[in-house]
Amino acid sequence: NWSDELQAYPDLNTRFDIDEWRGTVVNRFVAQAAIGMPLTIYGSGNQTRGYITLRDAMQCITRLIAAPPDPGQYDVVNQVTDVFSVMQIAQMVATIGREFGLDVEVQRIENPRVESEEHPYEVIHEKLQDRFGFASESGFADEVRHLFRVMLQPENRDRILAQRAALFPRTRWSGEHGEMKVLERWKPAA
């Protein structure tokens, strides 16, 4: 996650967590690819969520502040530009990783989380475009490319290597003990 403002003031950069508790799947996958570790999908990989880049989220907030609701009006506006499954994100990270000369593998492991892997995920987000004039300024794939450029810098890659153990889950949310079993491993098609 970056913006022109953050680039001008590096001390204000957002956190880049890659561990199993706070790290986002995108951060974790790019970090894994950067050090040659297989991208680790929990369970089926069909878990689906909405995503938005930091730059787009800032634009949304600015537009919403500039157009407050009428007194007494309550409105929900979902800030989402893309909806992806974990499997789709793994494919995207692997494809973009190849642009950087990386040979990316993917592995699916037992899901350490207690979550439904198959459920409908429908988010209404057209209100941003229709009522507030929002248009995405930065695509999700461009954000992944930026993450690769940053994570492949030698000092950042070394930091990831030092935290390698944090990239594979050790915590089972059910309270059970034991390592997560790898269910399958493959190289995504180009």
Question: Can I get a quick summary?
Answer:
This protein has 190 residues and is α+β, with helices and mostly antiparallel strands. The chain is built from seven helices and five strands. It has a three-stranded mixed sheet with strand order 1-4-5. A two-stranded antiparallel sheet has the order 2-3.
Mean pLDDT: 90
CATH H level: which superfamily?
UDP-galactose 4-epimerase, domain 1
- Number of domains as seen in the coordinates: 1
Give the C-level CATH assignment. Alpha Beta
| End-to-end C-alpha gap | 26 Å
Whole-number radius of gyration? 18 Å
Number of strands: 5
Note the beta-strand portion.
5-15%
Could you give a short account of the major beta sheet? 3 strands, mixed
Proportion of residues in helical segments: 25-40%
- The CATH topology: UDP-galactose 4-epimerase, domain 1
Parts with pLDDT < 50 across at least 5 consecutive residues: none
Question: How would you describe the overall organization of this protein?
Answer:
By secondary structure, the chain is an alpha+beta fold. The chain has a single domain, classed as UDP-galactose 4-epimerase, domain 1. The chain is 36% helix and 11% strand. It has seven helices and five strands; from the N terminus they run H-H-E-E-H-E-H-E-H-H-H-E. The chain has helices spanning 4-8, 25-34, 54-66, 86-99, 127-132, 140-151, 154-162, and strands spanning 39-42, 48-51, 82-85, 106-109, 182-186. The strands form two sheets. It has a three-stranded mixed sheet. Helix 2 (25-34) packs parallel to helix 4, helix 2 packs across helix 6 and helix 4 (86-99) packs across helix 6 (140-151). The model has no long low-confidence stretch (mean pLDDT 90).
